[in-house]
Specification:
single chain, 319 residues, alpha/beta, Nucleotidyltransferase, domain 5, six-stranded mixed sheet, five-stranded mixed sheet, 13 helices, 11 strands
Length: 319
């Protein structure tokens, strides 16, 4: 698995190809400028972050603007062009959307070659098949790959139809619980206190306004998840809420496992996204659900920064 050398050299070898990896997520876009080191190591030269880069939920123009902003921040001060940029974005499995976003990003002129790939690609750069990848961040999706090319995608239907076990789903459930407690005039649970704190509101009207008047309602609701996750496992309500969402997500993962015809103990489970990468409790709950369904993986890896997987994919294309 690729490793990162955090300290950048003061002088970059002009012969070393510059690589740019971008994770275009539903909450933010994160870009890493790197060069390849010995073995599977990469030296990070620059980091850039900007707004949401998901063209499915935020529209292609807005997503492209955020991605380019993150890329430019990562290469700030660079005196030569990046060799290859790989951008992983939700919805890029659709060729029409992928090519449209790729054309827009290429026009920015930051890299000689700019490739847009589906959001699952970084997971396959970091784990060899058979592999099942699960992303739970603002939204959620699962996918499996048995060979080099065939990918089965499960879920990823967006917040209106899916996003089980995502930050949005956790936040929505917590918000519903909070509004129910307020309307019933019950003492506030720890979950409700965390919800009110995140939205900076303490009444039914205030909470509803905080959501419905937000420029990005989906991300606003998803932001509640962090406080709920922080309460588990010490708080019973928060623990129960997370376990329920982990169960919902496990059904999506199960469809990816069974659809690829993987046997228990016969695949790698690759986990990423802010919720799964950030919560050991939620990861354990998901794995417990899979074990209960007879779908235990052979090993589990946590992808804490998908942009590293994009850097690895960029490196592979110049080797």
């Amino acid at each position: 698995m690729p490793h990162v050398t955090p300290s950048a050299p003061t002088k970059v070898n002009d012969q070393s190809p510059l690589l740019l990896g971008v994770d275009a997520g539903g909450t933010k876009s994160r870009a890493l400028l790197a060069t390849a080191g010995p073995g599977d190591r990469y030296c990070i030269l620059g980091v850039g972050e900007a707004g949401p880069g998901n063209p499915m939920s935020h529209g292609l123009p807005n997503a492209a603007r955020s991605i380019v902003e993150a890329m430019r921040a990562a290469v700030d001060g660079l005196n030569r062009q990046v060799e290859v940029a790989v951008v992983a974005a939700a919805g890029a499995a659709d060729d029409t959307l992928r090519l449209a976003l790729q054309k827009t990003l290429a026009a920015a002129g930051i890299a000689k070659i700019c490739r847009v790939v589906p959001d699952y690609e970084p997971f396959f750069s970091l784990a060899k098949p058979p592999v099942v990848g699960v992303i739970s961040g603002t939204g959620s999706v699962a996918f499996s790959r048995a060979g080099d090319h065939d990918v089965l995608r499960v879920g990823g239907w967006g917040y209106l139809l899916g996003d089980e076990g995502s930050g949005y789903a956790i936040g929505r459930r917590a918000l519903q619980q909070t509004l129910g407690e307020i309307e019933a005039d019950r003492p506030r649970s720890a979950v409700a206190v965390a919800c009110c704190s995140t939205l900076d509101a303490d009444s039914r009207a205030g909470l509803l306004a905080a959501v419905y008047q937000a420029a990005d309602q989906r991300s606003r609701i998803a932001s509640i998840a962090r406080g709920v996750i922080g309460l588990a496992p010490q708080d019973a309500d928060a623990s129960a809420l997370l376990c329920e969402e982990a169960t919902s997500l496990s059904k999506v993962v199960g469809r990816a496992v069974n659809g690829a015809k993987f046997a228990a103990g016969g695949y790698t489970l690759s986990l990423g996204g802010g919720v799964l990468a950030g919560s050991q409790f939620f990861r354990n709950a998901l794995c417990d659900c899979l074990a209960s369904d007879g779908l235990t993986p052979a090993r589990i890896i946590v992808v804490r920064d998908p942009a590293i997987g994009c850097v690895a994919a960029a490196h592979a294309s110049v080797c």
